[in-house]
Design goal:
Arc Repressor Mutant, subunit A; 99 residues; 3 strands; alpha+beta; 14% strand
């Protein structure tokens, strides 16, 4: 017997990719910061207290997983959430674990 879900195979794959894309403390903090507003890499490095190299690796992974998008302005790169469902996801995580 096959398990029936409310999600299609494509939707399930997207969910797995999204969850894997945030399954790290720094990436979860990035998601939290960007749920409020777009930020530059420099701003994120300062907020996270990590190296630019480490932040860039996490940002790249999140972008490749379809969570973030970026734009360049002069010599700065700004990141924001690509899909509003990730803002909803971080709100749900905060609501559940804040108790």
């Amino acid at each position: 017997m096959k398990l029936k879900t409310e999600l299609t195979k494509v939707q399930l794959d997207q969910a797995i990719k999204g969850i894997q894309g945030i399954a790290h403390p720094i990436r979860l903090l990035i998601l939290y910061a960007l749920a409020k507003e777009e930020k530059s890499v420099g701003d994120l490095v300062t907020l996270l207290g990590t190296s630019q190299s480490a932040a860039s690796q996490h940002l790249s992974k999140m972008k490749n997983n379809g969570i973030l998008e970026s734009r360049k302005k002069s010599n700065q790169v700004f990141y924001s959430l690509k899909d509003p469902k990730f803002k909803e996801l971080i709100s749900t995580i905060v609501r559940i674990y804040k108790k």
